[in-house]
TrEMBL record:
Keyword ATP-binding found: no
Iron among keywords: no
CDD domains for this protein: thiolase (cd00751)
Annotated protein name in UniProt: Acetyl-CoA C-acyltransferase
NCBIfam families in the record: AcCoA-C-Actrans (TIGR01930)
Organism of derivation: Microtetraspora glauca
Length: 402
């Protein structure tokens, strides 16, 4: 069985909602990351067997298989296929898994796993009937959970309320949630100031879309640093109102931010990398995906982490760095309590609370940051996991090899 190795990983900086990336066509923004893979490695794109792209809101400009339109927008040969997948927030992490599995099975030699989400242009839930995300479950699935009372209502609830449920179940108070939100901001600010993200970010010209007219303008300059970071304080965070329920603990300050962005990871067999004269930077050692309770919805990273460590014959202490998607602070804090990870090894450069969460792009964004941080610090093993809508989670372990 072939080893699946990561040769290169890149991302755009994350653009805040209606910010510097809001005027980009999603396929053209994603194409910038494919072009960066090609430029950084000297890759001949004719050898790419497939482009697998995560995208959550496959509607409007992100519809009709954006992976294929991205290949064409990048100027890659028409012979390179592409497919778009949706495993909610973990879509592009799943793209990495599918890429690695195809290589390990011997059916592909070179695959690009990528992700895109332009949330300014294609709003979250715009692909749901009348924006009602719960309607997509249908009556039969909703009836399965009709006896589950949540905040005075019964059945399935949106993710925001689920994040409050997680905070309640693990008795995570507002002060602790806000402290984590502040920590994410401070870590991300320090990482940006120290240039830790510089190698992974592809500069992109600023392109703005007017919120009222839709007119696109190019004011000049390039986006080279994440623009979602906020200057805040414990006092400012404490003053925010609950975001989802009047008595809830989750606020805008301890939740991920709506953002625009794209990312891509070049995966190939170790043999093909040698043949092309390319240096493997990490081996994808283990992968798993789990289903979890769809009412609480966001607890999947806990069993996913336990399962992948068990299958790998490893312990939490063997992992040098963790990337746990900061959909909400309650997700990461509940996960830490259950798996016993050292907080000093978790999201060391901040996460989606500070950097933004461009849904379909976040999986390969986290992997890009994880790889570069392992290289910077000399760590050996990294573990990435993400909660996903509907109650699921992916987990991936990589080993740095160079």
């Amino acid at each position: 069985m072939s080893e699946a190795v990561i040769v290169e990983a890149v991302r755009t900086a994350t653009g805040r909602r209606h910010g510097s990336l809001s005027g980009w066509h999603p396929a053209e923004l994603a194409a910038r990351t494919l072009s960066a893979l090609q430029e950084r490695t000297g890759l001949d794109p004719t050898v790419v067997d497939d482009v697998i792209m995560g995208c959550v809101t496959q509607n409007g400009l992100q519809s009709t298989n954006i992976a294929r339109t991205t290949v064409l927008a990048a100027g890659w040969p028409e012979t390179v296929p592409g497919t778009t997948i949706d495993r909610q927030c973990g879509s592009s992490q799943q793209a990495i898994h599918f890429a690695a599995q195809a290589i390990m099975a011997g059916s592909c030699d070179v695959v690009v796993a990528a992700g895109i989400e332009c949330m300014s242009t294609v709003p979250m839930f715009s692909n749901a009937p009348d924006g009602d995300i719960l309607a997509v479950y249908g009556e039969v699935a909703r009836a399965r959970y009709a006896d589950r009372e949540v905040y005075g209502t019964c059945g399935l609830v949106p993710q925001g309320l689920a994040s409050d449920l997680v905070a309640e179940r693990w008795d995570i108070g507002r002060e602790e949630l806000d402290a984590y939100g502040l920590l994410s901001q401070r870590r991300a600010a320090a990482a940006r100031a120290e240039g830790r993200f510089d190698r992974e970010i592809v500069p992109v010209p600023r392109r703005l879309r007017d919120r009222e007219t839709g007119e696109v303008t190019e004011p000049g300059g390039t986006l080279t640093a994440d623009e979602c970071l906020r200057e805040t304080s414990a006092e400012a965070l404490a003053g925010l109102k609950p975001a989802f329920h009047p008595e809830g603990r989750i606020t805008a300050g301890n939740s991920s931010q709506i953002a625009d962005g794209a990312s891509a990871v070049l995966v190939m067999s170790a043999e093909k990398a040698r043949a092309l004269g390319l240096r493997p930077r990490a081996v994808i050692r283990h992968m798993t995906v789990v289903g979890s309770d769809p009412v609480e919805m966001l607890t999947g990273p806990i069993p996913a982490t336990r399962r992948i460590l068990d299958r790998a014959g490893m312990s939490v202490g063997d992992i040098d760095l963790f990337e746990v998607n900061e959909a909400f602070a309650s997700v990461v804090l509940a996960w830490q309590r259950e798996v016993g990870a050292d907080p000093a090894r978790v999201n060391v450069n901040g996460g989606a609370i500070a950097l933004g969460h461009p849904l379909g792009a976040s999986g390969t964004r986290l992997m890009t940051t994880l790889l570069h941080e392992l290289e910077r610090t000399g760590g050996r093993y990294g573990l990435q996991t993400m909660c996903e809508g509907g109650g699921m989670a992916n987990a991936t372990i990589i080993e740095r090899v160079s």
